[in-house]
Specification:
The chain is α/β, with parallel strands linked by helices. It is built from 10 helices and 8 strands. The strands form 2 sheets. The chain has a 4-stranded parallel β-sheet. It has a 4-stranded parallel β-sheet with strand order 6-5-7-8, sandwiched between helices. Strand 3 (63-67), helix 4 and strand 4 (85-89) form a beta-alpha-beta unit. The longest helix has 17 residues, at 114-130.
Amino acid sequence: MSLRIASLVPSVTELLADLGLIPWLVARTGFCIHPRDGLAAVPKVGGTKDVNLAKLRRLAPSHVVVNVDENERPTVDALRAFVPNVIVTHPCGPQDNFALYRQMADIFGELPEVRSRAEALCAALQQALDTVVPLPPRNVLYCIWREPWMTVARDTYVSRMLALLGWQTLPALDGGPSGAARYPAFDWRDDWLGSVDEVLLSSEPYRFGPAHVEEVKARLAAEGRRAAVRLVDGEMLSWYGSRAIEGVRYLQRLAREPAG
């Protein structure tokens, strides 16, 4: 059986590219955009939540990479009917990337340089993590969607990334291993918002912009509350895989910038 890889996880697609596996990629989602030039010729099979299974079947992948949070369970079940190897990923914190790099090396390590590249990524991530200096505790609200307004539970990758600095996400709840509770909706009248020191508006999956910063400040003021509000790069804080290395460095730069 020849190797034919499909990735339905944008951050893992980038990781596979950095491991030198682009020549074996036969399918990706429309959200798999990095590296742009390297992926231009790789066919798209829909989005992470609306995979075109018929098109993917025609591309005959030998391996498909999926993720617990990004892809729907019925999609994964359908894939198992015609894909010999369905690779499930679920990093829930920056340190989980070590296992992710080595998981890919164990599966594709017979190809040239894959294992050495995976170990190089492990070394680079460890170096980045070793430079992190925790800050005084700070309560943050990390917004990922608007109407309904949604945030992250504390057992998600984003929350644990922010926790490297000592930043705690609110509300103080865990969402469990899978499901909607990991990304809860909230109301600006909720009492716990009075404890928020800073609101972070992510660039994805909802593309927050400058106008939303002013909107959030107004919503807080309407409830008699004040907190710093700023835009953040969602890819840097929520993408695992090789992006996590630069993500840790970005987080440290973010901590040095004055909050708005």
